[in-house]
Amino acid sequence: MTANNQRQPAGPLSERSPSGMTGFSLIADPPMSLPRFIALIPAAGIGSRMGSPMPKQYAPLAGKPMIQHVMQTFSDSPLIDAIYLVVSAADGYIDALPAMPRTRILRCGGATRQASVTNGLLAMAHDVDSDDWILVHDAARPGISHELIEKLISFVKDDPVGGLLALPVVDTLKRSDAHAHADHTVPREHLWAAQTPQMFRHAPLLSALQSSEAITDEASAFERLGLKPRLVEGSPRNFKVTLPEDMLLAELHLKGNA
Q: Contact 141/193 with Cβ under 8 angstroms?
């Protein structure tokens, strides 16, 4: 695959919010021109479970802040036309990171992932087309690779809804009662653990998020509307850093020792 060079990278951001976004079909018609592939990285969280004085996305990992690994991977990918990083308005760390090609910082992060992604989509709306593909990726998944990005795009770019990286569940799952005793075993057949990126066209994604409440990922917004995003098998290395002990495993993966 090679990057789509038929359109210029996103132009200067406008602070105005777009209007009339709710009339788009959530299943895309064939585009009039080749869509671009744009990364959107929500990074406004505080990472409270890490027990760190700084947000976990800025924690040092293999010689650089965790989020820098993520940004570098997308920036180096020949398939990605632009990268938008959504941080909180009070973020005091992002300016210390080196500038990267085709990367824009949006200081419009919200209290939740859903709010941050929605705000980011609104902020970029004047610079993208409604059928451009948006790859939403967690800032705390530094194990993303060029191969995974290419695999996701290859499998999803012709899907009418969109899709996401995920892993089939291999562990035996137990549902507990209110006192942490095993109540019953949950059949793992057809169960997948969601990862990111999650890839959907700009206008349908914005519309789906604006019509949903209290969701934890973008695919959920489409599922609530009766649509079925495609599942593309990801990789164990693309796990989300959540607890302090996850940092060592992430560093081993990044150094090629895991």
A: no
Tokens of 118: 């929605």
pTM, to two decimals? 0.86
Containing 69, the helix (H) or strand (E) segment is helix 66-76
Q: What is the pLDDT of residues 105-137, one digit of tens each?
A: 999 999 999 999 999 999 999 999 999 999 999
Give the span between the Cα atoms of 183 and 194, in whole angstroms: 24
Closest CA to 164 of 149, 178, 177: 149
For residue 108, what are the β-bridge partners?
none
Q: How many CB atoms lie under 10 A from the CB of residue 99?
A: 8
β-pair partners for 199: 135, 163
**Cα–Cα distance for residue pair 197/190, rounded to 1 Å:** 20
Q: What is the DSSP letter of 239?
A: P
Q: How far apart are CA 97 and CA 49, in angstroms?
A: 23
User: What SS3 state is found at 103?
Assistant: strand
Residue matched to tokens 């609530």? 224
In the chain, the percentage of residues whose pLDDT exceeds 70 is 84
Structural contact between residues 185 and 174, judged by C-beta atoms closer than 8 angstroms: yes
Per the DSSP assignment, residues forming a β-bridge with 168 are 192
According to DSSP, residue 29 is labeled P
Torsions phi, psi for 83 (to 5 deg):
-125, 130
What's the CATH fold of domain 35-254?
Answer: Spore Coat Polysaccharide Biosynthesis Protein SpsA; Chain A (3.90.550)
